[in-house]
Automatic annotation (TrEMBL):
InterPro entries assigned: ActD (IPR021776)
Organism of derivation: Corallococcus macrosporus
Superkingdom of the source species: Bacteria
Membrane spanning residue stretches: 52-75, 95-119
Protein name: DUF3341 domain-containing protein
Pfam families: ActD (PF11821)
Keywords: Membrane, Transmembrane, Transmembrane helix
Amino acid sequence: MNRHWVLGEFASSDALVAALKGLRARGFEQLDAHTPFPVEETFDALGLKRSWLPLLALGAGLGGAVFAYVTQWFTNAVDYPLDVGGRPLHSVPTNLPITFELAVLSAALTVFGALMVFFGFPHVTHPVFDVESFRSASVDGFWASVAVAGEDAPKVEAALRELGARQVSVVEEGAR
């Protein structure tokens, strides 16, 4: 069974937000909004939950920092102690730059990798981009999309028309 996306274009951002709330009230869950500029009300209308990405970045950053600090301490104080001019073998200030840099690098690479997996790269296009009129989403169109199984597409089409969509399109996954 292929997945379908049912797209509806609305006249304004207010109409889009009202439609998204209406779709959620009717039980549709896999909603998305496409607008030419950020519309803050869509986040609440979509029912988006708090992202886990900041916690993942924090964990990766702390892991990278601990790894860098322990590696520096081990190599300087335990594995290959080298007394240079009476300096202590373990000095916190000398280890901080590398620790900080590896923390930032670990967090950045982890977020990059997580987003690659989350967005399904290297698949860089989406079937909804095949709809010619959907190009208005980057200029002046306010679109709502609902991902559903094939047999539910007519229900979503009817719901979008009832909620005031100017036009409704259905895109099937793998139809190219």
